[in-house]
Design goal:
The chain is α+β, with helices and mostly antiparallel strands and 497 residues long. The protein has 18 helices and 22 strands. It has three domains: 100 residues, Rossmann fold; 71 residues, Dna Ligase, domain 1 (2-Layer Sandwich), CATH 3.30.1490.20; 238 residues, D-amino Acid Aminotransferase, Chain A, domain 1, CATH 3.30.470.20. The chain binds ligand MV4. Ligand MV4 binds next to strand 8 and strand 13.
């Protein structure tokens, strides 16, 4: 491969180009109106304008992108994540045009893109699965019967689903499953154009653990351990770490092997991620497979020393994996904090505007993957993630300490970000002790203005701040008011960050 086109934007486009350049491979960027001044456009060897700002008029125009590839003699296409990355037809068209799709086959994408077909594909591999149906439920009567058999609480899921869309919990028989099924089917229909739903036993407080795998075109597979991704809001991850604090060596090995079985079940080639739920008794269950490079891949790179993008490119060129499972050891600990343009203290409300001040943290154990420069506007058209702040340490505590230090160094003005939330997590006893699950945000973080769920250390600093401000005014400080009135708190945070 001599030249690849990156069918993406922002931080992931840059991330991919960096590895390509290290390999002596030339890069082509594509860009929309909103991204004319983006770093990924300047960084590439060649850049091509593809259309208006809306994704549907630019980054999702598969045929146009393939035409550009042909004109510029491109050998391979890297789709990044999102956009066309899990579009089976696009993958197929790239390959049919005589280029490499740097990712799995359209067959793998298709099978794993539908949850029911994924479940059926892995059936013969003895992969642990949550008790439930393996076919679409056709009518409400059938749904009620099945729910009784499985036993409440149950979860209705959309087969084509993703991001929690079309998902409904039904706590008990008395809550009436019919209404929830109708809602789930309607939601699935409008979101995916497919109203097929199925039912599973609801696992009440799971941890979300995913396994990174790599496969080549010769049937060889390895697993690159796990990422713990339980800290998320609205089914969007915010903090990820590797390794997970709860996996024993034995459990890690078992999950790794099962992840490879899932990959084998769909003839997977390249980098992929197998998602599991881990219940409070350490039982794990297959959820789904993501057939792309994931946002949080850097934490795996830091603990294994592997450049996943380089491996993707090598595998796409037909090279055999250069290592076997025994070659891999976990070294140290890594944490990723996703910095979104959102107001942590206003229900994670997306914010737009100009990055008037943007100073990245630096120093030992700090990696920042971003796609914006100071002075740029954050466009409204795409995902609101500004950057990924990733820290590495020889152990978990050092990774946490470095994250706290890096968050303090990070200076962003002009836009609200999730930096305050990430700082909150790093200081929270539940996170520090490793004792958390997918309900962390709901349980511990009050993202509304009246934050009465602060930790003692946070209350102390809040109090100190309020006290200092009021000493000058010589007024009596009301402790409770200082907690209720969040505006001081918020202003201070915005300034320090
Ligand atoms: C579940 C579950 C509990 N029980 N399935 C959420 C998104 C989709 N990928 C699967 N999800 C879940 N499936 C059963 N049978 C809980 C979740 C879930 C979740 C999973 C991973 C990370 C965060 C989550 C937050 C809420 C619910």
């Amino acid at each position: 491969m001599k030249k690849i086109l990156i069918a993406n934007r922002g931080e992931i486009a840059l991330r991919i180009m960096r590895s390509a350049h290290e390999m002596g491979i030339k890069t082509v960027a594509v860009y929309s109106d909103a991204d004319r001044k983006s770093p990924h456009v300047r960084y590439a060897n060649e850049s091509v304008y593809i259309g208006q700002s809306e994704s549907s008029k630019s980054y999702l125009l598969g045929d146009k992108i393939i035409e550009i590839c042909k004109q510029l003699n491109v050998d391979g296409v890297h789709p990044g994540y999102g956009f066309l990355s899990e579009n089976a037809e696009f993958a197929e068209r790239v390959e049919k045009s005589g280029m490499s799709f740097i990712g799995p086959s359209s067959y793998s994408i298709k099978i794993m893109g539908d949850k029911l077909s994924a479940k059926n594909a892995v059936k013969d591999y003895n992969v642990p699965m949550i008790e439930g149906t393996d076919k679409a439920i056709l009518n409400l009567e059938e749904g009620r019967k099945i729910a009784l058999q499985i036993g409440y609480p149950i979860l209705i899921k959309a087969s084509a689903g993703g991001g929690g869309k079309g998902m409904r919990i039904v706590e008990s028989l008395e809550h009436g499953i019919e209404e929830q099924m109708k809602l789930a089917m309607n939601e699935a229909q409008s979101a995916f154009g497919n109203n097929s739903v199925f039912i599973e036993k609801y696992i009440s407080s799971p941890r979300h653990i995913e396994i990174q795998i790599m496969g080549d075109k010769h049937g060889n597979y390895v697993y690159l351990f796990e990422r713990e991704c339980s800290i998320q809001r609205r089914h969007q991850k915010v903090i990820e770490e590797a390794p997970s604090v709860v996996l024993s060596e034995e459990l890690r090995k078992q999950m790794g092997k099962k992840a490879i079985d899932v990959a084998r079940a769909c003839n997977y080639v390249g980098a992929g991620t197998v998602e599991f739920l881990l219940d409070s008794k350490n039982n794990f269950y297959f959820l789904e497979m993501n057939t792309r490079l994931q946002v949080e891949h850097p934490v795996t790179e830091l603990i294994t020393g592997i450049d996943l993008v380089k491996e993707q490119i090598k595998v796409a060129m037909g090279q055999k994996l250069e290592y076997t499972q025994q070659d891999f050891k976990i070294k140290g600990h890594a944490i990723e904090a996703r910095i979104y343009a959102e107001d942590s203290y206003n229900n994670f409300m997306p914010d737009i505007g100009n990055l008037t001040v943007y100073k990245r943290p630096q120093g030992a154990g700090v990696r920042v993957d971003d796609g914006y420069d100071e002075g740029m506007d954050i466009p409204i058209y795409y995902d609101s993630m500004i950057s990924k702040l990733v820290t590495y340490g020889s152990n978990r505590q050092e990774a946490i300490d470095r994250m706290k230090r890096a968050i303090k160094e990070y200076k962003i003005s002009g836009i609200e970000t999730t930096l305050p939330f990430c700082e909150f997590v790093m200081n929270h006893d539940s996170f520090v002790s490793g004792n958390y699950d997918t309900h962390f945000v709901k349980k511990h973080f009050n993202s509304k203005a009246n934050n009465t769920d602060l930790q003692s250390s946070e209350i102390a600093s809040l109090f100190a701040l309020h006290y200092i401000e009021n000493v000058n005014k010589k007024t009596k400080t009301n402790f409770n008011d200082s907690i209720k009135n969040n505006s001081n708190w918020k202003q201070n945070r915005t300034k320090t960050n």
